[in-house]
Amino acid sequence: MSEPSTTPAVEVTDNPRADRYEARVGGVLAGIAQYVRSGGLIAFVHTEVEPEFEGRGVAGALARTSLDAARAEGSKVLASCPFYAGWIDRHPDYQDLLATEPG
To answer: What residue ranges define each of the domains in the chain, with the CATH number in brackets?
Structure first.
């Protein structure tokens, strides 16, 4: 029988004063997703995870939480950050959030 995991959960919150989502593990800042808002558009421009937290789902938690929030508020998303672009590409249920370029 395996032992239950004692790894603290990733907690993600929006910090609008700093224009970023913050991920904390055990109360320690583990990663951030920087954004720029303009009207009904939110552009995710940079994602960073502290090296000691890499491989623990921090960036994915940032993406999922922030994109769920964008959906809830009716915003469209511009994935300027390569991580966000790749994450959305791998999760087709979030592709409807992408802003379309004017034709």
So the answer is: 10-97 (3.40.630.30)
